Amino acid sequence: MQDRQTNIFDFEKYEVKHSSFKNSLLELNKIIDWASFLPILNEAFKKEKKSTGGRKPYDRILMLKILILQSQYNLSDDQTEYQIYDRRSFREFLGLSIGDEIPDAKTIWLFKDKLAKKGTVEKLFKHFGEQLNGNGYRAQKGQIIDASIIPVPKQRNSREENAQIKEGEIPEAWKEQPNKLEQKDTDARWTKKNDISYYGYKNHVDIDVKHKLIREYEVTDAAVHDSQVVDAIIDPHNTNADVYADSAYRSVAQEEKFAADGYRSKVHHKGTKSKPLSEFKQEVNHHRSKVRAKVEHIFGNQMMMMGSKLMRCIGMSRAKACIGLRNLVYNMHRFVFLTKLKVTSA
Description:
By secondary structure, this protein is α/β, with parallel strands linked by helices. Helix content is about 50%, strand content about 10%. Belongs to the transposase 11 family.
């Protein structure tokens, strides 16, 4: 490639591209009320004794925003530390200057682990849900329930080890090797979907039809059937009684329970080889699919933003925190979009 002198137009072109890349982060900074999360974060650390020496702890809102970045881009702790150093847009989002000290990978891991053990991410998600309601985005026009498999790195275990894990036991050899045990996920499980095997967890969500915001979520291992989690994620505050779901959620017992609880079932009809669906029920399913597609858009958005569904967290408590952060990040970006839409249409 022929060398040429850089001119003012090159810098202008760079600034335009850089601005578009960092735009979503700047919008998060402007629209999200970050300070409102501080009491919840402080609650997770309130019993810790203050050290008279050593380095002063990092600002907790700063640490939360680092976890938001990490979740949004699906980064490891080491990658997160590096990218904060490397990306100007990350430092601007965090309010850090070139000379400011940046939390290292270990500090990021410890902060995230504390939130996981205290169940703090669930509280942060609930708190932001209250903010959404307060800003006029209450759950309306019915709800959609669905689940997405979140794979984790496959474990290279023997059949005997897998059998013990399935029974809730820890293999003896692992107990004698603490470092090995730390790298083993004994809470994740195998499942099959469309004849493909997956190892990991499930993100069960409930969204409202009008705003496409995640209202409730539950994290389980991947082997738990979708229909077993309905009671945990159904949103009683939606202004409409319609409940949309695919045929995996359909059963006589569930239909009766929906009716008893005051919900109108819009669950897909299920056919069999011996009793295929009538044309009428196929048409009903077709119309319901158009509504239910909204939840698939959410799962697709999460995967597109993060580049992969693969999750690096090990163990149920950390999986709940990591998946909860993914759902919180989605809602934050959706809130920004809805806010901009309201301003544009006003």
